[in-house]
Automatic annotation (TrEMBL):
InterPro entries, alphabetized: SAM-dependent_MTases_sf
Bias (Pro residues) ranges: 20-31
Stored Gene3D superfamilies: Vaccinia Virus protein VP39
Region (Disordered): 1-49
Name the record gives this protein: Site-specific DNA-methyltransferase
Organism: Roseicella aerolata
SUPFAM superfamilies named among the record's database cross-references: S-adenosyl-L-methionine-dependent methyltransferases
Domain of life: Bacteria
Native organism taxonomy: Bacteria, Pseudomonadati, Pseudomonadota, Alphaproteobacteria, Acetobacterales
């Protein structure tokens, strides 16, 4: 067995490194390693999912409630959800919704149900639809000056007369409209489960010669109640509205309304930090 050498053999030069002032040469690269100056290897191309299409649900629609409402449900409410329409009226919204797609709980004043005092248990509802009278003319206490016909007539007469509920210090004119929305939204928050969907129909108005952006006021008010504004739809009526007596036009005539879609933010979470999410599966059986 040969012992390790402690130094160079006679006649061999000692490896003292490169001459002074010259750098030691770099070791040869390992097999497969990149060498400085070589072009970078091509990166894998990222492939996006989905397909190109123009068949999407848009935020603005010219037509009627019955045409737009099914699209809103398709985008925001999963099939099989328990949906409480608490201002059902003549059921116009549901005329083009496929039967059996949702479990619909219709109620209104004809069934003895006030949208501000619902008969459902806390957290029992997946989605709720609210379409109360949205113009102050519908809520005037005197019948001879009260506006509104058609599907809102029962709601108009009930809520304009106080609705069987005392409201000390309640607002007048446009404020009465907002109070009705906010009171109904408080009750909606109670019966909706966490992340539940609230669909609100509203329209801006001019009241007492003052422009009232009702949809903005509702979004702001419901944020304070713990609702995240998830989506907004503009519905433009297809025909031009007429005016019976016009002396001088001051504001643009409203020919559009809104569907506002909200999501219930769970207690303890900040609305400002909430993000859109799917309604999670129901943890238990649907209400009976």
């Amino acid at each position: 067995m040969t012992a390790p050498k402690d130094g160079p053999e006679p006649g061999e030069a000692a490896d003292d490194g490169p001459p002074a002032g010259r750098p030691r040469p770099a070791p040869p690269p390992l097999p497969g390693a990149a060498v400085a100056g070589d072009p970078a290897p091509p990166r894998a191309r990222r492939v996006q999912g989905g397909t190109a299409t123009a068949d999407v649900i848009l935020s603005a629609h010219a037509g009627g409630n019955a045409e737009l409402f099914p699209q809103i449900l398709a985008l925001h409410v999963p099939d099989g959800a328990v949906v409480a329409d608490v201002t059902f009226g003549q059921g116009v919204f549901w005329r083009q919704v496929p039967p059996g797609r949702y479990r619909v709980l219709p109620s209104d004043l004809a069934t003895g149900t006030d949208c501000r005092a619902l008969p459902y248990a806390t957290g029992a509802i997946d989605a709720l639809v609210l379409d109360p009278p949205y113009m102050e003319g519908l809520l005037r206490p005197k019948a001879e000056t009260r506006g509104g016909l058609g599907s809102h007539v029962a709601l108009r007469d009930y809520y304009a007369s106080g609705g069987g509920r005392e409201a000390p210090g309640g607002g007048r004119w446009h404020q009465a409209v907002l109070d009705l929305y906010l009171d109904a939204a408080k009750e909606a928050r109670r019966v909706l489960r966490d992340h539940g969907i609230l669909i609100v129909k509203c329209q801006d108005e001019v009241s007492a010669n003052r422009q009232e952006l009702t949809h903005v006021q509702i979004v702001t008010g419901l944020a304070e109640l713990g609702f995240y504004a998830r989506d907004l739809f503009v519905l433009v009526r297809p025909n031009r509205p007429g005016v019976a007596r016009l002396l001088r036009q001051v504001h643009a005539r409203k020919n559009h309304s809104y569907f506002l879609v909200f999501q219930k933010v769970p207690e303890g979470q900040a609305v400002a930090r909430y993000r859109t999410r799917d309604l999670p599966p129901r943890p238990g059986p649907a209400p009976g």
